[in-house]
Every structure is written in structure tokens, then in C-alpha cells.
Design goal:
Chain lengths: 754, 481
């Protein structure tokens, strides 16, 4: 395999991956889908044209004109949407890269291309944070290390002017200076270097100082994917679209107040939007944005007082989507985010949201463990709002009331909180536990004339959570209990390894909140009602995902590392991962040594505690003296050893008597002299046998060389005397050997046959 | 002022022209000096000037700059993905810094330098890199060497051989030949050799200085003596004897007879004996001790305003002397003296031999221009026998009045002075008097030397014959009107 061609191919592959990272999460841009393919195709084309022969390269003038033209493209692309400027900048770099592909390349050009690739990766990393970007980033890092290694080899060849331009141009016919490079040892070395590089890079990443919060991105203007079911208006059945989708919506770490991971029993309900207004035809509306006149940010929660409240902390990494809705367990006590754009609470319905859509969002929520507790800062519904919460078409109300009343007529109708709760629970139980209703994702309509909810309630009796929630909300309203439908997520894929939860679209869920009055503080009390049959829903959720669910623990763990320890790695996590364990280890070690020292001190004090000289003549005295003498002997031995080493270091390498080195050097000189005539000692041959062979060779040479045929044997005899006989050679012998070698060299050099 | 006995200035351990092998792992310590002060000095020197160096390359600095900008941006913005990209970029840098040390382990270097090089000849140095590792190949290693003048003369431009080893597989070795025009005559030293690599990414360069210093002598350039020189020498020799000699016995002595062999010169056939014995018999000659030869060089140059021509003339004088030494030392037996003027005139003498030739060439290589000293002082240092019998060749860069010099000499009486004058050839190189005595050889000096010695035995008779022919032709020309 030719190293030059491998380098070039790897280079193009690396740049293609860089372009892929840049265009990674382009769900709404066709250009982004095509660009990586275009870059790959251009790489292949350049590989077979300009990299094979320079004459296929673009003329410089044409390249310069094209480069100026790309500025126009950049302008045209970024003009409609300023928010997309950074992405357009990345595209512009790809255009420049493509032009550069078709120019004959020098080392500087390759550095320039490498830098363009790096910039694309950087932009891609800033504007995309999806899982796939992480995977591509990892692939790019491996390729970049590989390419840097090969690039270095090519640069060195050019630096020492060994590169034949023709060779570089003619591709495969070029003589590769690194012939046989790609062997097994090289693969091993490369893997080692790669591992070392990634590990060192990773270590530096972990050790770099962090601030308290880490942001995952800038406001990049990415066109993120749409999260169905969380819009201003939700049509009945719409949520069913995402129930069969396996993609991740958010990753959640659930801890207690002290950030100790915990696993909640059951499936937590991550509340998203509330839908209050029902319109005929199965259409739910949120409270229109205009009505949200007041937004509040929750103050920090202090869990003080005589009775500490059980709380649940959720550290949530929301994947990029186009909704402002945030999800958390109700009731929320504290809300914070690492981003400069803090989240807010809507006091009308207790939902939380972020100031802008698009992009990922990291936030932290502290919730009360008691789901029935009132939501802090939520205001009781006004009379206008009560109308909305009880609103439904009159004809529909009468029919629903007819269904609901028989179910609650045995319950008291006092208007108290308990009575309302009991009536609401009865309706919930009817839908969920009666066995009359089943769970399905199929969207059949039995009677199109009827309202879809009524059709579900009366005819089909099968549907998904949205139908159950809608039916329950309307049934509640029909008996004058204010109710609202809530869209959110129920549970998620719990990973025992990481003690975290990945909430996917398939976990989307609808439930109902019924207003039951106010508490003593005047806070509104809402109860959560979930009418969906649990078992059926769980079965349905479990079926979504197919084969990938089998490796879900592994992929979720990788995802967890990516989301929490790469994208969301901040000072607190750094402390938890590194500094706290290190501090604790140091403290433990110090404590251990202190303990050891204390024991040693006490032991010695006890051992050496002799009341009198006579007491020394005893078994204890024997042991003490034995230990002391042994220690002394050990110390002396150690000192001698260290002294010898120091002496050895001081003297340097063995430089012996002139004879020893000289004898060996003469032999070396002979060996090197004969090596020029392809006479080399084989491993199976002794020096003596080699000398005999050399003598025979010299005997077959012209007369003047024959006269020195005995020289190798003489040298080897001297070598044996020194090397194996440990004898010194006297100066006369040394001189004679020198003269013999000189003579041999002269004769060999003057041999006309050579 | 006395004769300095010549000796081969060669190490008894590693002769110049051999090869030096050193492992990159060895410490740079000379085993020679064992004195306490020397050891302390060496220890301090090695501590202050480490043998291993790590240098960030220009590309490395640029890379570091880009990486730092990314890192700063990541830290400032606290965006983890920017930090991740920047720290991944830091990986190769750190790996280069940490891992490059391992890439120079278990490597041995051999430098092979020729025994001698003539000025103007190509200087060829062979560098061998031996990879002692079992599996791993040594990749993209380079050696940087330095050849500097060490004989105290003007240093001139240092020569820096640089060779590159793309790949040396495990347990293998590779040899790279470096060649360049050799510098001016003199003694030069190869400094310690640097073995380095920028692997694996070219961002950081790791160098190990290997103690591999050794010296090399650049001999003066050798030319080819012209027929005119041989005539001149013969005339001077005849003048010494005061008569013409039998040509055959002038330099060869009749030794005996032997059977004719194919290739023998028909002139050598002894017809009388051949007729008597009925087979062709030829005369066999034996070399006779020839007249001693003393080459006296006066490399005088003025203190100031030294013209290029004058310097070239001095170099030509030295080159001429070297060529005459070569011609003389081709055959053994003749006594040869080389002397030179200076503040302390010196001579070097011995029986003509290969060894003496090398000693004389080395002396000539180290010969420095003299601004003082006279020929008379040099004549005074000559042995008495030489003063009486030797043929004197005096080569100077200034006009020499030998009679005056002889008069100034304290060791020459009137008759011996006249005798000496008759045996001397005085040549002034500044006047271009050497131009017709020596000419450029078509071959390199080394090949010329080797050829002269390899054919010394074979062409002995032929060359004698040539000389005779030269004499005959010269006589013929002289006889012509």
C-alpha cells in the first residue's frame, strides 16, 4: 500500500467527516444533506485527477475567481436569516475547501485544508449537539490523528528533498520512500499513539478548570426538530405520531437534595404543556401566549423549618427542539439553568418554559416529592379562567354528563376538596380500571358524525393516552369540575449503570389535572389524574424501538457520558468526578500514614523500653538487637548498592582497558570492512567460522589480496582473547592488528575488480 | 629548531577512516580523561548542556497557537464541545512531547569516514542507522552532523551533513551516503552527531546528541607531474654526479637473468645468453637506492595585502610538493625529506613508503603560510647527509637567491655551498614556474593515488622506460640545432 496515496485518501475522508459534523443535524436544510456527499465525491474526483497529475489541476486564476465567487454564495445564503450566519460561514469554508481540492497541493495547502476542516468541526460542534455529532467527532478525532501522522511523514520527505515531484504526481507509479510501512508493528504503534493521544486529550478536557455551569452551545440558530404535541394547538390524536418514535427528548439525572442519585418508584410524570380550551372536533388549545401577562422566576428553595420536605432534584438535558416548553415533575420548588437565558414559570398553569426555542437546553429542577402538593407561585384560576377550564360544547356537555353522573352519583356532592377528588377519582377509575376501555395506537373512527372523544367514549372504547385524557377532562367538566389536559412524558428508559433516565418521544403521555380548590394559604390545589390503562400502555411503549432496545443499556450509557460528562461537564461534575475523590484519597492516605506512624512509634517505644541494662539480656532484648542489627545490615547493603550505582554513573560507560575495547573495535572494523563485500556473519556462525569464510573469500581474490587473507583470522583470534579470554592486548599486538587492518583496507580498496 | 620525528597521528583504538558506532542510549562521556577536575567539568557540562533536547518546531508553534486560541475560546465561553475539540487537538502535541523519547530508543549510529580525503575530491561519509528494536520500525529519523576546522586556521564555512532515514525496520539497519565537495586542506573534526526525529506528528522535534566526534585530514590536492619535471630532475641529478650515467643503472641495477615471460620488454632480452642457452633470457633489474630527495617549501606570504594570486601560488606549491612526495613514495628505499620555513622551520623525513607519504601529506595539509623565517634557517635544520648528497627541490612563493641563502647558512662551507647549488632546483610559484611541471589530473586525487600505488610494481619497468624515452627525446631535442 502506497503511503502517499493512503495519506491523500485519508485526508479526503477526514475532510468529508468534518463536513458531516458541520451539516450534522440539518433537518430542514437540503443543502446540508447534500454537502457531505458533494465533499466526498469531490475528494474521489480530486484523488483520481489532480493528485495523479498536476496538469489536471485548476489554473490559479480560475481558482481565485471561484474563491471570490464563494463570497457571493455566502452573502446569498446568509441574507435571508442572520441567525444562520455561522452555519453559512461553515458552508463557505466547504466551498473554499472544494476549490482547494482541485489545485496541486503543497504542505502549506494541506495545512490550510486541515485548518478548514478543523474550523468546520468547530462550527459543527457549536451548532450541533446531537448524539451523532458526538460519534462523528470521535471518528474525526481518530482520522485527524492518523492523517497528522501520515502528513508528517510526507512533510519530512519534502523537507529532506527526497520527494520526487514526478513521484508525487504519478501516484501509484511513484516510488514510495516508506515501502512496507503498513505492517503489523506499524498498526500496533499507530494504535498506541492513537490511544495515547485520545487519552491525553481526554484527560486535559477533564482537568481544565470549569465554571459552575456549562453551556452546551451558543444560540446557534439551528433549525431543530419539531416536537409534536407541544404546540399552541393540539389536534386529538396528534400525540400518537410521536408515540412510535424512539428518539431521545431529554436525559434526566434524578437525585435527592444532596445530589445522591436515586431511582424513583414508578414512572415520574414530566409535565409539559397544559391544554385548557377544548373545541369541537377534538382540538385542544393552550392558553394563548397573549394571556401570559405575568411570568415569574422561582426564588431559591430553602428546605428549612421543623419538617424537611422530601424533594426530587432533576438535572435535565433537553435535546434541541423547536418548542419553548420545558418538562419537570410537579410541583416545582426551584428552577435554574446554566444558560444565561433563565427558565420561567407560568403562574397561570404552573408550566415552565424557556425564553427561546431551538437548540438544546440544560436546566435543573427541584420538585416536591408529594405530587399533590400545591405548585409554588401558581395563582388560583380567576372566574374567566374557570370558564375556560369548564368550557366544552353544550351539546357535548349534556351527553358527557349523562355518562358521568351515573358513575359519581353515589358520591357526595358537597363541593369540598375531598368530595371533588373522590368524584374525579371515580371517573378516572372508570376509564382506567373498568376494563371497558383498551389501549391502542391505531386511529380508527367508528362514527365520523360524533365528536372524536365521544366516539372514543361511546363506540370505539380504544385509543391512546390522549383520548383517555381528553375523555376524562371532558367528563370532569361535564360534572362541573374544572379540569385541564396535560401533555408531557411519563417515565423513561432507566439505566442502572448510569443511574439516569433517557426520556424518548415514545414516552410522551397525556393526563389530566383537576382543580379541587385552594389550600389554607390560598394556593390552588390540583390533583393529577391518569386515566390510561398502565399495563397496556407499557406494553405498547416497550414494543417501540425494535432491535436497538437490545443494546439500549450500552447506547444509553454512551449517551449519558456524552450528554453529562462531555456536553454538560461543569465544575460540580468535575468536583464529583475528580477533585473530591482525589481529596478524599489524599486524606485517607494521610490518615493511614499517620496511623502507621503512630503504631510504629508506639511499637518502638514499647520495644526499646528497658528499665535497666540487665533487662536487655532477655528474649525481648534478643529480638530488639536482632531487628536493629538486621536493619543496620540492610541499610549498609543498600548504601553499598547505591554507592556502586553512583560510582557506575560517575564513571560513565565501561571504558576499560585499551585492550578490551580495542580488540572488540578491531573486530567491528573488520566486520564493517567485509560487509562492503557482502561478507556478513550469519547468526548461526561463530566469529571464527566467519573469519575462515572471509579468508577463503580473500584467497580467491587477486594476488595482492591473497597476501592478506590471513588477517581476518588474526583479528578474530585477538577478539577471542579479549572477549572470551579476558586478556589485555599489549601495545605491539594492537599496533600489529592496526597495521594488518590498514593493509587489508588498502588492498581491498586498490582491488581493480571492485 | 630540530627535526620532529614523524608519527602517525592515529588513535590506537579507532583509526581515522574507520567507523564509529554509538548507541543513542549511551551517555555522552569520554572515557579518556579520568581526572577529578575533568570529571566534574564533564558532569557539569553534561548537566548544563543536556544531550537530549526537545524542540517545538515552527509548525508545532503554529499548531500550539491555534490550539491555544480554541482553548481560550472554549474556556471563555465555557462551551464544552469547543473545549473538547481543543483538547483533542492538544492530544497530538502532548503525545509528541511525551512519546518522542521512545522513538529514539535502541538505535545505534555508525559514521564511516574515509581515512583521508584530498582537497577538491568528493567527501563521502556513510551514515548507518541500526534499529535494535524487535518489531517497531524507526520512522523518519534524521542525522545532523557538523564538520569544522580544528587545526587553528580560519574556520571558514562549516559543513553540515544531513541525512534522512525514512524507515528502518526492526532489527535492521540502513545506510545513507552523504557526499559533497571536500573543503580546503587542513584538519577537520566531526562534532558530536545529532540523531533526531519529529515523529509522530512533526510538531515536536526530539534530538539526541551522540558523542561521536572524530577527526579527518584533508590532504592537499594532487596533480600529475609532467615530463618536463622528470627531465629537470634528471638534469639536476646528473649535475650532482658531474657526468652522465648509464641509463639502465641510473635508477635500476642489473640483478640477474631469467626466462622470458610474455609481456616482457624485448629490450631486456639478453641476446648473448639467449643464444648460448637456446631460449630467450631477459635481464632482471633490482631497484637501487636512489639519491635522497629533499623538498623544501617556503610558504611565505606577506603580513598584509595578500593577493588571491599569491595565496593560490602557495597552495600550488603545497600541491606540487604533495605530488612529488607521492611520486617519490611510490617506490621504497629512497630517503625523502620534507621541510618548510617558518618561525621555527621544521622537517619531516623517512624512508619512502606509503606510511611516510601519509605523514607528509598530513604535514602538508596542516602547513600554514609563513610570514617570517628564511630558507637559510631551514637549510640549517637539514641533516648533514642531505646537505651533502640530496637533491634539493626548493619551492617558494617569493624569489629565492640560493647562493645568498647558502652563504647565510651557518652549516655550509664554501665548497659544500657550491655543491648544494648544483643539486638544487629552485622554483618560484608566484612566477608561474610550476605551471609546466605539474598539471591537473583528469581523475580525482584519491583515484590517482590508488592507481599510482596499485601499478607501482607493474609499471616499474615501463615507467623507467618512459623516463628513459623522455631522456632520449630530450637529448634528441637538445642535439637538434
Amino acid at each position: 500500500m502506497n503511503s502517499i496515496l493512503s495519506y491523500r485518501a485519508s485526508f479526503y475522508l477526514m475532510l468529508t467527516v468534518a463536513a458531516t459534523i458541520l451539516c450534522g443535524e440539518a433537518t430542514d436544510s437540503r443543502l446540508d444533506s447534500y454537502l457531505p456527499v458533494g465533499v466526498a465525491a469531490a475528494g474521489v474526483l480530486a484523488f483520481f485527477t489532480v493528485d495523479q497529475s498536476r496538469r489536471w489541476g485548476l489554473p490559479r486564476t480560475v481558482a481565485n475567481i471561484l474563491a471570490v465567487g464563494t463570497l457571493g454564495l455566502f452573502f446569498l445564503e446568509s441574507r435571508p436569516d442572520d441567525a444562520q450566519a455561522i452555519r453559512c460561514l461553515g458552508h463557505w469554508m466547504i466551498y473554499l475547501q472544494l476549490i482547494k481540492y482541485f489545485l496541486p497541493k503543497t504542505a502549506e495547502d494541506d495545512w490550510f485544508l486541515f485548518l478548514l476542516g478543523l474550523t468546520q468541526v468547530l462550527i459543527g460542534s457549536v451548532i450541533n449537539q446531537g448524539d451523532m455529532v458526538g460519534a462523528w467527532l470521535f471518528v474525526w478525532a481518530i482520522l485527524a490523528v492518523w492523517v497528522l501522522g501520515l502528513f508528517f511523514l510526507q512533510r519530512e520527505i519534502r523537507r529532506f528533498r527526497m520527494d520526487t515531484e514526478a513521484g508525487a504526481a504519478s501516484g501509484q507509479s511513484a516510488q514510495d520512500p516508506y515501502r512496507g510501512l503498513f505492517d503489523v508493528p506499524f498498526a500496533g504503534t499507530t494504535l498506541r499513539a492513537l490511544a495515547l493521544t485520545l487519552v491525553l486529550g481526554g484527560l486535559v478536557f477533564l482537568l481544565l478548570p470549569r465554571q459552575v455551569g456549562a453551556t452546551r452551545s451558543w444560540s446557534s440558530g439551528t433549525m431543530a426538530r419539531h416536537l409534536t404535541g407541544f404546540d399552541e394547538e393540539v389536534k386529538l390524536g396528534q400525540l400518537g405520531e410521536i408515540l412510535e418514535n424512539d428518539s431521545v427528548v431529554m436525559s434526566v439525572e434524578i437525585t435527592d437534595e444532596n445530589r445522591t442519585p436515586m431511582h424513583l418508584p414508578g414512572e415520574p410524570l414530566f409535565r409539559g404543556v397544559t391544554l385548557s380550551q377544548y373545541e369541537k372536533g377534538g382540538r385542544w388549545r393552550r392558553q394563548v401566549q397573549r394571556s401570559l401577562q405575568t411570568i415569574v422566576s422561582l426564588p431559591p428553595f430553602r428546605n428549612t423549618g421543623p419538617r424537611k420536605r422530601a424533594v426530587i432534584r432533576q438535572i435535565i438535558k433537553l435535546e434541541p427542539n423547536d418548542s419553548t416548553t420545558l418538562f419537570a415533575i410537579r410541583p416545582i420548588l426551584e428552577l435554574s439553568a446554566t444558560s444565561r437565558l433563565a427558565p420561567f414559570l407560568n403562574p397561570l398553569d404552573g408550566t415552565i418554559f424557556r425564553p427561546e426555542s431551538r437548540g438544546g437546553y440544560d436546566f435543573e429542577v427541584l420538585s416536591d416529592a408529594s405530587s399533590q402538593a400545591p405548585q409554588k407561585n401558581e395563582i388560583p384560576p380567576s372566574s374567566d379562567r374557570m370558564k375556560i377550564l369548564l368550557g366544552m360544547p353544550e351539546t357535548l356537555k349534556a351527553r358527557f354528563r349523562k355518562i358521568a353522573l351515573p358513575l359519581v352519583q353515589h358520591l357526595p356532592d358537597e363541593g369540598t376538596g375531598e368530595a371533588v377528588t373522590a368524584r374525579a377519582r371515580a371517573l378516572e377509575s372508570h376509564l382506567r380500571d373498568s376494563g371497558k376501555f383498551g389501549y391502542t395506537l391505531e386511529m380508527n373512527v367508528n362514527d365520523p358524525q360524533l365528536d372524536p372523544v365521544e366516539d372514543f367514549l361511546v363506540n370505539r372504547k380504544k385509543g391512546h393516552c390522549e383520548y383517555f385524557a381528553s375523555a376524562l377532562a371532558l367528563l370532569l367538566r361535564s360534572i362541573d369540575i374544572p379540569a385541564r389536559m396535560v401533555n408531557g412524558f411519563k417515565g423513561g428508559d432507566w439505566n442502572n449503570l448510569t443511574q439516569s433516565m433517557n426520556v424518548r418521544q415514545k414516552h410522551a403521555h397525556s393526563w389530566v389535572e383537576a382543580y379541587v380548590g385552594q389550600d389554607s394559604d390560598g394556593s390552588p390545589l390540583w390533583i393529577t389524574l391518569d386515566a390510561t390503562p398502565v399495563m397496556d400502555r407499557d406494553e405498547s411503549v416497550a414494543q417501540v424501538g425494535g432491535v436497538s432496545t437490545k443494546i439500549r443499556p450500552l447506547t444509553d450509557m454512551i449517551r449519558y457520558v456524552w450528554v453529562f460528562y462531555i456536553l454538560g461537564y461543569d465544575a460540580s461534575r468535575q468536583n464529583r468526578l475528580l477533585y473530591t475523590p482525589i481529596k478524599e484519597t489524599i486524606r485517607d492516605v494521610r490518615r493511614g500514614y499517620a496511623m502507621l506512624w503512630s503504631w510504629t512509634k508506639r511499637g518502638f517505644a514499647h520495644l526499646f523500653n528497658f528499665q535497666s541494662i540487665d533487662a536487655f539480656i532477655s528474649i525481648k532484648g534478643f529480638f530488639v538487637s536482632f531487628i536493629v542489627l538486621s536493619l543496620l545490615a540492610l541499610i549498609v547493603r543498600l548504601a553499598i548498592s547505591v554507592g556502586n550505582r553512583l560510582l557506575h554513573w560517575w564513571r560513565g560507560p565501561t571504558d576499560d582497558s585499551a585492550g578490551l575495547t580495542a580488540g572488540i573495535l578491531f573486530y567491528r572494523r573488520l566486520a564493517q570492512m567485509l560487509a562492503d563485500y557482502d561478507l556478513e556473519r550469519t547468526p548461526a556462525e561463530t566469529q571464527h567460522e566467519f573469519a575462515l569464510r572471509a579468508s577463503r573469500f580473500l584467497t580467491g581474490q587477486p594476488v595482492q589480496i591473497q597476501a592478506v587473507a590471513e588477517v581476518p583470522q588474526k583479528i578474530v583470534e585477538a577478539f577471542y582473547r579479549v572477549r572470551f579470554g579476558h586478556r589485555d592486548l599489549d601495545p605491539d599486538t594492537l599496533k600489529e592488528l592496526e597495521e594488518n587492518l590498514d593493509l587489508l583496507q588498502t588492498r581491498l580498496n586498490t582491488n581493480p575488480d571492485q | 629548531m630540530g627535526a620532529i620525528p614523524c608519527r602517525a597521528d592515529r588513535s590506537t583504538i579507532v583509526p581515522p577512516g574507520g567507523s564509529r558506532l554509538m548507541s543513542a542510549d549511551e551517555k555522552a562521556r569520554s572515557p579518556k580523561s579520568r581526572g577529578l577536575v575533568g570529571r566534574i567539568a564533564r558532569g557539569l557540562a553534561s548537566a548544563l548542556v543536556p544531550t537530549e533536547r526537545t524542540i517545538v518546531t515552527r509548525e508545532g508553534w503554529c499548531y500550539f497557537g491555534v490550539m491555544s486560541v480554541l482553548l481560550a475560546a472554549g474556556l471563555y465561553q465555557q462551551v464544552n464541545l469547543i473545549l473538547l475539540v481543543s483538547t483533542l487537538a492538544a492530544g497530538p502535541f502532548l503525545t509528541s512531547w511525551i512519546g518522542s523519547r521512545a522513538l529514539l530508543r535502541r538505535l545505534s549510529v555508525v559514521r564511516r569516514v574515509p581515512a583521508y580525503v584530498f582537497s577538491g575530491d568528493p567527501l563521502v561519509v556513510n551514515y548507518t542507522l541500526e534499529n535494535g528494536r524487535r518489531w517497531t520500525a524507526a520512522l523518519a529519523l534524521f542525522m545532523e552532523d557538523s564538520l569544522v576546522r580544528v587545526d587553528g586556521a580560519a574556520p571558514g564555512t562549516a559543513i553540515s551533513p544531513r541525512v534522512f532515514f525514512p524507515r528502518v525496520p526492526g532489527r535492521d539497519r540502513a545506510r545513507v551516503r552523504w557526499q559533497a565537495a571536500s573543503p580546503r586542506r587542513g584538519k577537520y573534526g566531526f562534532r558530536d552527531l545529532d540523531l533526531g526525529t519529529r515523529a509522530p506528528f512533526g510538531l515536536v522535534e526530539r534530538r539526541v546528541t551522540i558523542p561521536l566526534s572524530e577527526e579527518i585530514v584533508i590532504y592537499p590536492k594532487i596533480g600529475q607531474l609532467t615530463r618536463r619535471w622528470f627531465q629537470l630532475q634528471r638534469q639536476a641529478s646528473e649535475n650532482r654526479m658531474g657526468k652522465r650515467h648509464d641509463r639502465s643503472s641510473q635508477q635500476e641495477e642489473y640483478h640477474g637473468l631469467r626466462g622470458y615471460r610474455s609481456g616482457d620488454n624485448p629490450r631486456w632480452i639478453h641476446w648473448r645468453t639467449s643464444a648460448r642457452r637456446g631460449e630467450l633470457m631477459v635481464k632482471e633489474f633490482e631497484q637501487q637506492n636512489e639519491q635522497d630527495l629533499a623538498i623544501l617549501i617556503d610558504p611565505w606570504l606577506p603580513r598584509t595585502k595578500i593577493t588571491r594570486e599569491l595565496r593560490d601560488a602557495m597552495e600550488q606549491a603545497i600541491s606540487f610538493a604533495a605530488t612529488v612526495c607521492l611520486e617519490t613514495c611510490r617506490r621504497q628505499g629512497r630517503r625523502l625529506i620534507l621541510g618548510w620555513t617558518g618561525a621555527t622551520p621544521e622537517i619531516c623525513q623517512g624512508q619512502a613508503s606509503v606510511k611516510l607519504l601519509h605523514e607528509l601529506l598530513e604535514r602538508l595539509a596542516l602547513l600554514r603560510p609563513a610570514t617570517e623565517g628564511t630558507l637559510a634557517e631551514l637549510i640549517d635544520t637539514l641533516p648533514a647527509t642531505s646537505l651533502r648528497h640530496s637533491l634539493l627541490i626548493i619551492v617558494s612563493t617569493r624569489p629565492i637567491n640560493l647562493a645568498e641563502e647558502a652563504e647565510r647558512s651557518s652549516r655550509l662551507a664554501g665548497s659544500s655551498s657550491r655543491n648544494l647549488l648544483s643539486r638544487a632546483i629552485v622554483l618560484n610559484t608566484a612566477q608561474g614556474e610550476l605551471s609546466e611541471l605539474i598539471q591537473e589530473a583528469g581523475l580525482t586525487s584519491r583515484i590517482l593515488l590508488e592507481q599510482r600505488f596499485s601499478t607501482a610494481g607493474q609499471d616499474r619497468f615501463f615507467s623507467q622506460e618512459d623516463r628513459r624515452r623522455g631522456v632520449q627525446s630530450a637529448e634528441g631535442k637538445a642535439a637538434a640545432p
